[in-house]
Amino acid sequence: AGCTLQQYGVEKLDLTKATVGFSQSEKEANPFRIAETASITAEAKRVGARLITTNANSDLGKQISDIQSMLAQGAQLLIVAPLNSEGLEPALRAAREKKVPVITVDRKLSSAAPCKDYLTFIGSDFVDQGKRAGEAMAKATGGTGKVAILLGSSGNNVTTDRTSGFKDYLKASAPGLQIVAEQTGDFAREKGQQVTEQLLQANPGITAIYAQNDEMALGAVTAVRSAGKKPGQDIKIVSVDGTRNAVESIVAGDLNAVIESNPRFGPLAFSTAQKFYAGETITPTVIIQDKSYDTANAKAEVANAY
Ligand code: AHR
Questions:
Q1: What is the pLDDT of residues 137-164, one digit of tens each?
Q2: Given this model, what pLDDT does residue 1 score?
Q3: Where are the beta strands (DSSP E) in 43-153?
Q4: 72: closest CA among 102, 52, 43?
Q5: How many Cβ atoms from other residues are within 10 Å of residue 183's Cβ?
Q6: How far apart are alpha carbons 214 and 242 in whole angstroms?
Q7: Which DSSP symbol is given to 58?
Q8: Which residues lie below 8 Å from residue 273, measured CB to CB, with a gap of 6+?
Q9: CB 3.0–4.6 Å: which of 51, 108, 127, 177 could bond 161 by disulfide?
Q10: Average pLDDT, whole number, for the chain?
Q11: Whether 282 contacts 2, CB under 8 Å
Q12: Could you tell me the pTM of the whole model?
């Protein structure tokens, strides 16, 4: 299965002369988002395309109007990092009407169809990230303990996939790890800290935290310390993203492991578009590779983290 220029029904485009729109979903307060926008910006420059960027600031209505506004400004190709897995339909319809291809990156649209509502999805295997976080947790804890999960924001597949991958792994391979609490920290550092404080008060027996992104993990480190415990030792912490701060925290001993979520979509997004315009068949999903960090490689990898 795949998608060609003819099947998708759009015109050929010379990217070196094109106007490309990038719709960012969340504020650039999180290194993941900073690195994601920087990667698209750098690659647009390298290719020679003119880039328009918008930021929806975690507001779905704004993301829809951002996309409509970029279409009105003459965007000929759109790269969209969806805020939610549902709800972008009006924006996708507007792009379809103008015969503007949409490449989605990072979060996946659940009901929209590839080659129809959008061209293709480029992102991580988030279920696998959850599974790898489970493996790292089993290694850090020796396979036993009481685990709290700091969930990401709701309404997107990243949170649900990172949760199911982790839980399925524990069930099958680390039954000594018991999940005693799970609450959303909205992928934000402060909220991660607040929620961890509450969870530690309510469940003083917690010995491990799975944070679904690094920002929440760093908030959890502060909360664990204020509870008089040593992060990384008394309470093992595993998270996802691979920000430089998080990898440095492994070196410092505060975090035990981090599974990367690679935000550097620029080269893959533009090369996929170039292949599409050159007449190649594009698969519905393009998976980006993620590394992992732990005490064995963190020091050597700090400089490569974002
Ligand atoms: O969708 C990816 C997630 O969104 C990242 O892991 C998180 O840091 C960001 O907010």
A1: 999 999 999 999 999 999 999 999 999 9
A2: 80
A3: 50-55, 77-80, 102-105, 120-123, 145-151
A4: 52
A5: 16
A6: 7
A7: T
A8: 15, 77, 101, 103
A9: 127
A10: 98
A11: yes
A12: 0.97
The token duo for 19 is 């106007």
The one-letter code for the residue type at 174 is A
Contact (Cβ atoms closer than 8 angstroms) between residue 274 and residue 267: no
**Can you give the pLDDT at residue 37?**
98
The residue whose CB lies within 8 Å of the most ligand 1 atoms, and thus the one to mutate among 129, 187, 218, is 187
Confidence of residue 71 (pLDDT cuts 50, 70, 90): very high
Is the minimum distance from the CB of 36 to ligand 1 under 6 angstroms? no
Work out the average pLDDT over 33-49: 98
- CA 278 – ligand 1 centroid, Å: 32
Non-local CB neighbours of 107 within 8 Å, separated by 6+ positions? 25, 81, 82, 83, 84, 85, 123, 156, 157, 158
Minimum mean pLDDT range among 25-29, 94-98, 204-208, 223-227: 25-29
Using alpha carbons only, give the angle 110, 163, 136 rounded to the nearest 5 degrees: 135
Q: Element (H or E) spanning 44, and its range?
A: helix 31-47
126 CB within 6 A, ligand 1: no
Work out the angle between the directed axes of helices 157-173 and 126-141 (0-180°, nearest 10): 40
- CA-closest candidate to residue 154, choices 56, 66, 85: 85
Dihedral sign computed on CA atoms, order 156, 162, 26, 183: positive
Tokens representing 144 are 């036993």
Residue of 105, 93, 69, 94 lying closest to 271 (CA atoms):
105
Q: Which of 52, 113, 51, 103 is nearest to 82 (CA)?
A: 103
145 beta partners: 177
* Enclosing H/E stretch for 222: helix 214-226
